[in-house]
Amino acid sequence: MTVPGMSGLRLAVLTPDASxxxxxVDEVVVPILDGWIGVLRGHAxxxxxxxxxxxxxxxxxxxxxxxxxxxxxxxTESAVTILTGAAFQIINFIVLLAILARFFYRPLMNAxxxxxxxxxxxxxxxxxxxDEAESARRETEEARQAATAEGQALVxxxxxxxxxxxxEATVKAQAEAARIVEAAHQSADRESQRVLHLVEGxxxxxxxxxxxxVLSNTTGRSLDDxxxxxxxxxxPASTDAAAVTATAEASRGGHPIxxxxxxxxxxxxxxxxxxxxxxxxGIASSEPRLEYEIHPEVLAxxxxxxxxxxxxxxxxxxxxxxxxxxARAER
Length: 331
Known about the structure:
This protein has helices at about 95-150, 150-220, 220-235, 240-250, 265-280, 315-330, and strands at about 10-15, 20-25, 25-30, 35-40, 45-50, 55-60, 60-70, 70-75, 80-85, 85-90, 255-260, 290-295, 300-305, 310-315. It folds into 3 domains: about 10-90, ATP Synthase, domain 1; about 95-220; about 220-330, no CATH class. The protein contains 6 helices and 14 strands. The chain has a 5-stranded mixed beta sheet with strand order 2-1-9-8-5, with no helix packed on it. The protein is α+β, with helices and mostly antiparallel strands. Helices cover about 55% and strands about 25% of the residues. The two termini are about 50 Å apart.
């Protein structure tokens, strides 16, 4: 029995499998047939049909969301009770943005700022070299003017020499400046590609972690049914032919087909598992002998064993493959 707090409103969200939420809140906003309705402590009691969608509740300045597939809602002066087939909580969008800003956006911006600073330094060095070349030109011009005072005969020779020095210094300075700028741009491009590749790997790893967390908290018979129905229709792929052949031979040799699943199977799930096992057996007209073992860590799906042959069709294996892909992307 739910016991409400002295000053708040007690919110309880229940599914056939578990209690998803049971805590004191300040306000609850739910979708019913008449539209969205807000409930505070002291609200007039009522019961209504709950529509599929978001149940928003607030405690202090923190707002959270529970997604349901519909159900019923009962309201008293001090409590709100929601009965639904399935529900799970969504991370507050502001919290997610804060996580991304701290672990990805700021490091990326810091790396870009460092590269911009390095490029600015290199451009300043190129400017300094150009200034030195200009200074050399002025010195040469002064030397030419001094030579003019010594005699008309030396003026032509001094002018040719000064012009050659100026041209050579200018060409070298321009070439060096262009080389430094090009090297700076290439370095910035390589660093940007490396940072983007690293961010891509970390975002993929974070997405897999979030998916694993959400699926670990929401696995139930409905998810088992959906996963097994998909396997019964689509498995095996052409790449699984060797495993199917080996499983069929093990079954014909008298070995039972052992099915590892997360929880005791329902009648529907037994039918789906039998269809998957028939595909694994490789002979549609043959009825395999099935034995069930409970392994909660598989999350959903099934792991099929026949003798020494193991065919892993679990949600846990799929998440592991995604995490391995994220690690390869980060490397």
